[in-house]
Amino acid sequence: xxxxxxxxxxxxxxxxxxxxxxxxxxxxxxxxxxxxxxxxxxxxxxxxxxxxxxxxxxxxxxxxxxxxxxxxxxxxxxxxxxxxxxxxxxxxxxxxxxxxxxxxxxxxxxxxxxxxxxxxxxxxxxxxxxxxxxxxxxxxxxxxxxxxxxxxxxxxxxxxxxxxxxxxxxxxxxxxxxxxxxxxxxxxxxxxxxxxxxxxxxxxxxxxxxxxxxxxxxxxxxxxxxxxxxxxxxxxxxxxxxxxxxxxxxxxxxxxxxxxxxxxxxxxxxxx
Length: 272
Ligand SMILES: NC(=O)c1ccc[n+]([C@@H]2O[C@H](COP(=O)([O-])OP(=O)(O)OC[C@H]3O[C@@H](n4cnc5c(N)ncnc54)[C@H](O)[C@@H]3O)[C@@H](O)[C@H]2O)c1
Ligand SMILES: O=C(O)C1=N[C@H](C(=O)O)CCC1
What we know:
Blueprint: E1 9-13, H1 18-28, E2 34-39, H2 51-54, E3 64-65, H3 68-72, E4 77-80, H4 84-96, E5 100-103, H5 110-119, E6 124-127, H6 133-148, E7 154-161, H7 171-184, H8 188-191, E8 192-194, E9 208-214, E10 220-228, E11 231-239, H9 243-255, E12 262-264, H10 266-270
Parallel strand pairs: 1-2, 1-4, 2-3, 4-5, 5-6, 6-12, 7-9, 8-9
Antiparallel strand pairs: 7-10, 10-11
Helix pairs in contact: 1-9, 4-5, 6-7
This protein binds nicotinamide-adenine-dinucleotide and the ligand O=C(O)C1=N[C@H](C(=O)O)CCC1.
């Protein structure tokens, strides 16, 4: 790590997590950004340790801390893949530090989103339930297909993730659902059908259905199914490596350096 060059300094929150460690490796290997901080939750075993050593390698000169504001004050960007309550707190602190906040956390509900929106009045926030190029392109294709088809075509979104995932539908599934709803000219909130179980009755015409599979080490798989009488269209994205999300997040952190305060998504970053 060098403190002397002028590439943006980045803090990773949730550094010990699946995405946190992926991001740390990517940033340490990058010549476009510097790792200047690592944040974990209070009480975590890595607090006070050198991050590189905690990850089982050589020291990197960054000590893991639970003092997020002090870490953010030294950074130009914060990359955050943690949990909803933590992300809301980090949004306020990143805004205070005027650092770009890249949010990958999913499972955010209306109350969280309202607080993130408020923080974006003071700083750049880039938020997406999926930071990969492939999924963001798929949202565009989904919108286009939904626009071309009427409600004789039932839309179903099926997703699969690893056994440790805590939220459903996935952030990606919701992005795809929003894209389908937009294409069809309806509000997803009025047509969302998730969690079928028992005697559900026949499918409601025009609804967008969600199903979630959880198991093993699946990184992330999403099908958008358009099912009509006699034919079916299936649009599919398969993630095999979390590096796709980390690359997108780093790209967002760099892109955000030149933007005005506000809330953005990966469609903005990628120019899709
Ligand atoms: N947007 C995307 O492209 C994308 C991709 C992958 C994962 N995700 C999302 O990112 C989130 C994290 O996923 P993961 O698989 O890395 O989970 P994980 O459980 O492996 O990691 C989460 C980390 O956050 C830390 N954390 C929790 N509360 C904290 C706090 N208050 N302060 C600091 N650290 C805290 C945990 O200790 C843990 O290390 C999930 O919401 C997941 O859905 C999004
Ligand atoms: O592993 C996860 O958790 C993932 N979360 C995002 C989602 O909810 O869609 C992106 C894919 C991986």
